[in-house]
Each structure stands twice: as structure tokens, then as C-alpha cells.
Amino acid sequence: MRESVAKRIVREMFYKECVAAWLTLDEIREGSILTLLGEEPRELPYIDDIGFKRHQVKSVENDWDTFALQQQMMREEGWGVSLYSGEMVDYLKIMLHKHGRFVVLNMDIEGSYRNNLDPSMTSVVQFCCDNPRTVVGTYSTIGRSIHPVWEGIKGLSLLMWLVPDMVRKLLAAVSYGYSETDCTQSVRFTLRDVFWIASQLEHMTQASVVQGHIQRSGFDRFNEAYSSLWDFVMSHPHKTLRVKGLFDVVQWWRNEEPVLASHERLPKIPIRITKLMHVYYNARPPWSQRCFFCMYEVRENHAIAVQSVLSNLCRMFIDQRFTYVDRGGSRRDFDLACASTKSVHRFELWKGSRMYDSFQSRKLKPGVYRGD
Ligand SMILES: C[S@@+](CC[C@H](N)C(=O)[O-])C[C@H]1O[C@@H](n2cnc3c(N)ncnc32)[C@H](O)[C@@H]1O
Predict the structure, then answer these.
(1) In this model, does residue 364 exceed pLDDT 80?
(2) Position in ligand 1 atom list of the atom nearest CA 39
(3) CA distances from 107 to 60, 159, 219 (A)
(4) Helix runs in the chain, H state only
(5) How many alpha carbons lie under 13 Å from residue 4 in its C-beta half-sphere?
(6) Euclidean distance between the first and final Cα of the chain, in Å?
(7) Ligand 1 atom with the shortest distance to the CA of 116
(8) What's the gap in Å between 16 CA and the centre of ligand 1?
(9) Nearest residue by C-alpha to atom 27 in ligand 1
(10) Which of 14, 109, 117 gets mutated to test ligand 1 (max ligand atoms within 8 A of its CB)?
(11) Is the beta carbon of 88 within 6 A of some atom in ligand 1?
(12) 14, CA 20 to 30 Å: which among 32, 207, 249, 260?
């Protein structure tokens, strides 16, 4: 399939500006890379250039025809990589942990982050706790699915509860970034990003339990309060839900449930994201893709409150320039910190009853590796 020019630029960005810049040459030479090569091995020149050995390249593919094509090309062209046939989520839950030397997880899957990657992110974070020098790429194709937007509204309620001042800045910053692109739905796109941020916090908290850094009860308290908050939001529908309206419902819940809502009850976790680059590019209409490139670390003696972890992540998201690649392949980097929060309260998040009637939010499933 003909690739979009923007995709080529972003692929190069990932390898040159993240992998080669964040890892040492020795780490690359000694390490493995997990990727999805797809129909054509377009990544291999970059992988070779920055110093990976071919036998350290592991590729996952769930489409049988594409996998057969890969096998054929591998024989004919002598790729020398390792091909795995199956689902990425399965690989991430089990195989990843059998093979300790990954320094890059490039999970370039078209489709929504919610369905394809989120179910295995606790496992990924857990892996990164043991292997902190790992560059992780997650992707979400922005198409017609409305579920990531609804997940974003749910995530927004979490942010309004835990980091109310920061969330205004985040909304202003990210929506400003989108408004500088050819995107015509900047609030909707921003909500998808809010989902990614909230999901990171959930997975880092859950990974903290699995890794034994916090008690299970700490995660349960977090989850119990978040579920109560979301049930409350869903049982107080608005015909037109705006940022101001959602803030009001969250505040109402805090007044009704002061014990559950207390920040003091929440766990302190030692995991955080240390590096981040986020990119938005236009592929073929009507698709565009959001890419998040990051690294995690665990600082065992420096556990901090989940709300501080969240606040720091939002800060990083704002401080990091918003990289945009348009359909013609031109790149622009926007400074988000200058965005004004003035009109944020009026942002329309959702109109109508559909979300209240039909949204089943995803449930965190353990999906984590616990050893043999
Ligand atoms: C976007 S392409 C990879 C492109 C490649 N990274 C590049 O830069 O050219 C994704 C590939 O992963 C496969 N795929 C999609 N979803 C998958 C999943 N859940 N598990 C495993 N493979 C998947 C697709 O069939 C496709 O061949």
C-alpha cells in the first residue's frame, strides 16, 4: 500500500529524535526492538542505520496474509529478523517478559489505542519498571470511533478531581495545538489525548501493585473513588455537556462523597514518565494519527502521590512542543505553554444523550505478567 508522506516523516522522527537520541549506542547495539513491520519493511533502513542488529528485531503481525508475505520477503531478501504471528496484546502480556533485552517497543498499530494497546499497557509499564531504558511508542488512529472521546470525558473527570488547576491549562494548551493544524474538531481530539493521559496514570498505578511497590488496597481505593465519580457523572446527564458543567458535577460529587474524594486516601507510586514526545500527523483522509513516544522510570525511594504524578505528566505534555506533520509532509512544532485558559469553561464536550445511554467505559483488566 502506498504510504503517506507524513507517515514517513514521523517514522524517521521516532528513530532519529527518540530512539537514537534517548538511548546510547551501546544500548542499541546490545538491545532488541519490538515492532510491527507490516506489509513492507520500511522501518528496517532506520533500524539498521541507528545500529540494531537484524537478529534483535522482533516483528509481530496478526494478519495471516501479511504474515505470509513477510515470511516470503524474509526468505527472498534475507531480512534476518524474527517474525511472530499473533496479536500484539498477547505478545505484550507474555512474550515481552520472556525476552528481557527490549530497548524499543514500537507499537505502531492502526486503530484505536483503546482497543489495541490499552489492554496491555499495565504489562508494558511493568516491563519498563524492570527495564527503564526502554523507548515506548504508542499510536492511535483518529477515525470514526467515538469511544476514545467518551473515555476522554471520563478521564477528564478524573483530572478535574485530582488536578483541577492543571486540567484547565492542559485543555487550553492541547486544543490550541490542534487549532493550529487543519483539524476542525480540536476539543474532540483533545479528549482523546486526555484519555491517553488518564490511562497512563491508571496503568502506572496498577503496575505499582503488580510490581509490589504499593498495596493492592491502595489501588482499590483509587479505583473505587474513580468508579464512584464516573457513576455520579453518568447519573447526572447534561443536554450539552461543557467543561464548566463537568467541573460542577465533579465538585458536587466531592461534596457528596468527601471521604472517597479525599486525596489523602490515594496511594503514592514510584513510577513516572521521564521523556515524552507527542506528534499528530495527517495520513490519508479521513484518517489521522496521534503518536506518543515516551520512557518510564521507577524510583523506589521516591514514591509520590498519584495526583502529583498526574500533574507532572500534564505539565510535561504542555511543555513538550506539539509536533504536527501535515499531509504534504511539512512539519511544525508549536509551543503550547502560551495558550490562554480564558474560554476553556465553554468548551463543548458532548451534546445529546447517546453517551449517557450507550457508553460502557473500559475496565482495567490485570493483563499482566506474573512469572511462571
Ligand atoms: C501500521 S502497520 C506497521 C507499519 C510500520 N510500522 C511502518 O512504519 O511502516 C501495522 C501492522 O500491524 C498489523 N496489526 C494491526 N493490528 C495488530 C494487532 N493488534 N496485533 C498484531 N498486528 C497487528 C497490521 O496488519 C499491519 O501489518
Answers:
(1) no
(2) 27
(3) 9, 26, 27
(4) 5-13, 20-22, 25-30, 44-50, 64-77, 88-90, 96-98, 113-116, 121-130, 147-162, 164-179, 186-210, 216-234, 243-256, 258-261, 306-319, 354-358
(5) 18
(6) 41
(7) 19
(8) 21
(9) 38
(10) 109
(11) yes
(12) 207
For ligand 1, whether the C-beta of 63 sits within 6 Å is yes
Residue 94's pLDDT is 84
Q: How far is the CA of 47 from the centre of ligand 1 (A)?
A: 17
d(CA 185, CA 190): 9
Give pLDDT tens digits for 227-286: 999 999 999 999 999 999 999 999 999 999 999 999 999 999 999 999 999 999 998 777
Residue 132 CA, ligand 1 centroid: distance in Å? 25
Give the length of the chain: 372
Contact, 112 vs 140, CB < 8 A? yes
The answer to whether the beta carbons of residues 167 and 156 sit under 8 Å apart is: yes
Over residues 166-183, mean pLDDT: 96
Predicted confidence at residue 283, as pLDDT, reads: 82
State if residue 43 touches ligand 1 by the CB under 6 angstroms criterion. Answer: yes
Q: How far is ligand 1, taken at its centre, from the CA of residue 62, in Å?
A: 8
| pTM greater than 0.90 | yes
For residues 337-345, give the mean pLDDT: 94
Q: Where are the alpha helices (H) located in 88-215, listed in sequence order?
A: 88-90, 96-98, 113-116, 121-130, 147-162, 164-179, 186-210
C-alpha cell of 61? Answer: 503481525
**Does residue 108 line the site of ligand 1, with CB under 6 A?**
yes
Indicate whether 351 pLDDT > 60.
yes
211 touches 129 (CB < 8 A): yes
Distances (CA, A) of 42 to 45, 210, 329: 7, 36, 17
Q: How far is the CA of 140 from the centre of ligand 1 (A)?
A: 12
Cell 521516591 -> residue: 302
Task: Check pLDDT > 70 for residue 369.
Answer: no
State pLDDT tens for residues 86-145: 999 889 888 888 877 999 999 999 888 998 899 899 999 999 999 999 999 999 988 788
- CA-nearest residue for atom 15, ligand 1, is 109
